[in-house]
């Protein structure tokens, strides 16, 4: 069973890096109540999170704005992170870029996942059969992050890669993970989804309630245009071999190729079978 969350770990992240200083400061206020929480370390990690896909270089001023942290503090943090190899500094541009230390940490995390190694071959087989994309992801705040993905040889398929982030509450992968979280953790996360996206919350909540029903009825969840109008997918959760880490698979692609009937009657059952096969190989069945 996944562990209950002990301290807030979302920091109002919307999948593209936090923008708001006010939100960041509120996060610091929340954590100040926890004597075990090291704010200086948290702020340093937030600096690394500020880099988005497509960002090659950022200045201290840009990092300060995105983190909501005073520029003098940012300057000390970027200096320290550069000394440790997590950032590189360009003298010519007077900007920072992510360093090799970040990649090394990511690689160690990926290489430690037993599910990922066992899943690659059956994922590729399903992707080719369905002429779709099949991916494996884990939760990061209010998003899912791809840790493995296989694309078919078809010309029309989703072009998301390892490290891509998708929303937790509106995607098949994210909803599948939510369905098996402990009640307290699920409520905690959904409350922050509601705070972040209040206008769309009634529709999001309805989609999640339907996901619970679909998971009970079929063993998988659907997302038919809820995340992006032209993307349809199914999702199934899975635990790591030791039962400590919760992940989820998805399978899908362009909406015009994957009708709801095809998701329910074909792709969903095949993805459930894939997960059962992997669980057997992990010794969980």
Fold and architecture overview:
It is a single chain. The chain has 285 residues and is of the alpha+beta class. It has ten helices and eight strands. It has helices at residues 21-31, 39-49, 60-67, 71-83, 100-111, 114-130, 172-179, 183-196, 201-218, 260-281; strands at residues 87-90, 95-98, 133-140, 143-151, 165-167, 221-224, 231-239, 246-254. The protein has a six-stranded antiparallel beta sheet, sandwiched between helices. A two-stranded antiparallel ribbon has the order 1-2. A hairpin with a 2-residue loop joins β3 (133-140) and β4. It is globular. The two termini are 15 Å apart. Mean pLDDT is 87; it is low at 1-27.
Which characteristics define this entry?
285 residues, alpha+beta, 6-stranded antiparallel β-sheet, two-stranded antiparallel sheet, 10 helices, 47% helix, disordered N terminus
């Amino acid at each position: 069973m996944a562990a209950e969350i002990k301290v807030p770990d979302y920091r109002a992240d919307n999948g593209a890096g936090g923008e708001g200083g006010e939100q960041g400061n509120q996060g610091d206020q929340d954590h100040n109540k926890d004597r075990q929480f090291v704010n200086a370390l948290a702020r340093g990690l937030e600096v690394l999170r500020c880099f988005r896909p497509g960002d090659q270089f950022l200045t201290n001023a840009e990092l300060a704005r995105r983190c909501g942290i005073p520029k003098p503090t940012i300057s000390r943090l970027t200096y320290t992170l550069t000394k440790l190899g997590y950032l590189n500094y360009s003298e010519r541009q007077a900007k920072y870029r992510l360093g090799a230390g970040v990649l090394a940490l990511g690689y160690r995390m990926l290489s430690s996942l037993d599910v990922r190694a066992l899943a690659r071959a059956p994922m590729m087989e399903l992707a080719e059969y369905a002429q779709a994309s099949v991916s494996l992801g884990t939760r990061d705040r209010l998003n899912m992050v791809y840790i493995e993905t296989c694309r078919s040889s078809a010309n029309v398929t989703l072009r998301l890669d390892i490290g891509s982030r998708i929303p937790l509450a509106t995607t098949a992968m994210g909803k599948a993970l939510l369905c098996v979280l402990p009640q307290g953790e699920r409520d905690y996360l959904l409350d922050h989804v509601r705070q972040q996206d209040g206008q769309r919350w009634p529709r999001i909540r309805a989609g999640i309630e339907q996901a619970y029903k679909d998971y009970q009825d079929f063993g998988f969840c659907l997302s038919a245009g809820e995340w992006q109008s032209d993307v349809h997918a199914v999702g199934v959760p899975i635990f790591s071999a030791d039962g400590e880490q919760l992940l989820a698979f998805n399978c899908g692609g362009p909406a015009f190729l994957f009708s709801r009937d095809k998701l329910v009657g074909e792709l969903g059952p095949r993805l459930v079978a894939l997960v059962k096969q992997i669980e057997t190989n992990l010794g969980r069945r």
